[in-house]
Amino acid sequence: MASDASYNASVYTKQGSTELVVDSSGVLTLEGTLNSTGTITVSAGGTLSVAGTISLTTAGVLKHSVVSETTAANLSESGVSVVSSTGTKELYTIDTPAAGVTKYIYCDSASATGFVNVYTGATSITFGETTDNHYLKFNAAEEAVSLVGISATKWGIVGNVGSVAATTSTT
Fold first, then answer.
1. Which CATH class is domain 66-167?
2. pLDDT under 50 in the chain at which residues?
């Protein structure tokens, strides 16, 4: 029997594999509990929405991506960013916050003259409660900050290791 070229399944098992594929027009609904020692992968641009609770066993770990950043690209609004300075002042820009999303920034090298600044990208976006704080300043190695998106215009500072300062300028 010839295959119908106009038929494209949205959910299918890859031929010769145990991999289940759900394409961009498909939907996978799990009713009950998913017990697995495998991996759930969401491709770039995709979303995994969970209406219930994600529970991890004692062996389970929720991991964030860790990226050694460059000033050429924005820091993503989630995950772990490692920033640094090679002796001169460096300026990084962070993406717009998303409510409820956590972000961690770790500085692996900086100094009084070669400090690191992270900019919100717009004067309408702030770090913390002060409306003029658009920069985070890292003065030393091993400083870190934990952020959570409060809204599309505010990063909440929920943890600070060292003396990371929310400031109004890059100086």
1. mainly beta
2. 1
